[in-house]
Specification:
The protein is of the alpha+beta class. 51% of the residues lie in helices and 17% in strands.
Length: 390
Amino acid sequence: MTHARPPIDDRFLPVRIEALVDAIDADAARFGPVAGWAQKIARGLERVVIQEVGELHRHLDRLYAPANPDLDALAEPNPPWNASGPRLHEAIEYLLHQASFERLSDVGVRAAIRAGSASGLRVRIRPERVERLSLHVRGRGVATVRRVDRRRPWRRYDLELPVYTRLAVVAQLKDEAGLRLKLFRDIPVADVEALLPHAEATMTMLDRAMVFGAGAGSLGSLGKVLFGGATTTSALAIPAAVGLGGMAVRSFLGYRRKKRQRTSHRTQHLYEKNLANNAAVLHTLCRMIALEESKAALLGYALLASGKAKADDLEPVARAYLAERFRATCRYDAALALGTLERLGLLEDRALAEPQHAHALVEAHWRTRDTTGHHLDAIGHGATRPQPGP
């Protein structure tokens, strides 16, 4: 599978923070005095944001431990929040939302499941096994895949498929005590069904025809012998029984072999697309949150401090800059940027701190740890980051 780079329309900034810092530093004509302080301010912002997210990760890890299927140590008998209640699920929902994931509605999940097969792999969905299931996506794009022409198998052609750049699965099965967390990359919409934990690999009609075709042929030959003028039918009873038994065994073994091949295909498919599982998903999402918040706050500060934008029009100005400088068509979360700047004291009553003072403020916050419990307080109050507009 090869990937094109289509325009991105999502909540995250598809630019590395190092590239953003370098771009601001190198553009004194646009950003004025901020250009000379971008490196230091960015480093200070990252340290504070990572400090806040680190505290969130530590508490989430403790909370998830009793429900972690991979836990290799004794979990706390009384975790900080009740792991059997809704608080764990609320915290995971908050984490995914802050990491710029969008939850697929039930309609979206059903549409994805109806979209087709996973590269020719058929799966059977067993909803009766599911206690809880939610799918979350971040980023949509298009991938180009090579397919075999069914009419002319010796020829191949390119096919463009819509994909989810990142897809997270939160699932709990009725026969399991743990909560499964999985994170995948570049998943075609038609492949979503193969990622569900309650899906089982099945055979396609072509597989069934290949398995039972040989047996049907043998049965037809045997019928010609039995009813095609043989002297006595009773003389062929034993050979017929042996032939039918052999056909049944061969068909059964062929069916099992094909089903194992399909299961192996599904396992390989999931392995190639898998990014993280269970507790590692929490770590990955926390890292995404820290990066997104740092980038949004840095760009917001640079545009506001240089006078290129005001708080009321920060979003469209930031989007225009990203499109001009990085050719990235994306959304920009102005609410996230302004909230971070206000929380760290860089923006008070619409007045912005000068670059040198801004650097001193973020360094002071990092030393005093004043905002370490920011995310935990947000979860406690049931808060989530507001959805930015299109």
